[in-house]
Specification:
By secondary structure, this protein is mainly alpha-helical. The protein is built from eleven helices and no strands. The protein has helices at 2-26, 36-126, 134-147, 154-159, 161-169, 173-183, 185-198, 205-212, 223-236, 239-249, 261-287. The chain crosses the membrane at residues 7-28, 40-63. Keywords: Membrane, Transmembrane, Transmembrane helix. This is Phage abortive infection protein.
Length: 288
């Protein structure tokens, strides 16, 4: 650009020199005119030669400058696009690395934590049902009174609920809620753990199934207890949560046709649903 400017200045100066020389040459030997109109004609002559040349040179320099600026803008846009592409590639690599780490963590935690959860579930099922509140005690007392049996293990109350459902459903609905909430505490943790990992890596399903299909006792697999909890979730109206189990663990999507333990837990869940709806409405009322 510097060389171009020098060249344009040279052209303008050259044209000016030539124009002035030719003008002097044409009027050589004559005395300087005292008529202002003659000098006006001289100024017109200069503007028509040197002035036009200067305007053309300026316009040419301006156009050249615009071209260079456009080239610079295009170059900057190309650089920005290149940076965007690089940023997108980096972001994709980070997402892939994040996904890889999440999958790795899902496997590691499943292999270390899930066996402990299952061992804890077995111990919990083998224990006597312990009423942690007066409401839970109300439910237990009603069952004990009906069956004249003071030795109820957790697995009895879960897996044979069709035997106790009518008695439990006759209890206060808040008592039923606390009873079910307490008895499903471990199952809820296992169910939530499996879903959280399967949403990351569905390949873990066969690993979980290897535990759930194993026998808790001679006649019952752990899947049976998952089904009981799952039916309860549908009854409670926790359909989104329950449907995750349908899609990720291939659990049943309806327990209405069952007339056994699963249907009993579905019915208990429906009673608990009323409690949850009442609590939700009360909280919303307080929030207003």
């Amino acid at each position: 650009m510097k060389h171009l400017n020098k060249w344009l200045v040279g052209v303008v100066v050259g044209v000016a020199v030539i124009a002035i020389v030719l003008y002097i040459w044409n009027f050589w030997g004559r005395p300087p005119s005292e008529d202002p109109s003659d000098w006006a004609h001289f100024a017109t002559y200069l503007s028509g030669t040197v002035g036009v040349t200067a305007v053309v040179a300026t316009l040419f320099a301006f156009v050249k400058t615009l071209g260079q600026q456009q080239a610079l803008i295009d170059s900057q846009e190309e650089m920005i696009e290149s940076q965007k592409t690089q940023l997108s590639l980096t972001r994709s690599q980070l997402e892939l690395e994040k996904e890889r780490r999440e999958i790795e963590l899902a496997y590691n935690s499943s292999f270390t934590i899930f066996p402990m959860l299952m061992d804890s579930l077995k111990k919990d099922l083998d224990q006597d049902f312990w009423a942690a509140s007066e409401r839970e005690k109300e439910v237990l007392d009603r069952v004990v009174e009906e069956f004249r049996n003071y030795d109820f293990l957790n697995y009895d109350l879960i897996s044979d609920m069709e035997d106790y459902a009518s008695i439990i459903l006759s209890c206060n609905e808040y008592s039923v809620y606390e009873f079910a909430d307490g008895i499903f505490l471990k199952l809820d943790k296992i169910y939530a753990f499996m879903l959280s990992k399967l949403k990351i890596e569905e390949g873990l399903k066969s690993y979980y199934e290897s535990y759930l299909l194993s026998n808790y006792n001679h006649a019952t697999t752990y899947y049976h207890y998952i089904y009981c909890y799952h039916a309860y979730l549908f009854g409670c109206g926790e359909t989104d949560y329950a449907n995750l189990g349908v899609s990720l663990l291939d659990l049943p999507n309806d327990y209405q046709e069952n007339r056994d333990t699963y249907h009993a837990w579905l019915t208990i869940g429906e009673k608990v649903k009323k409690v949850k709806e009442g609590v939700k409405a009360s909280n919303e009322q307080k929030a207003r």
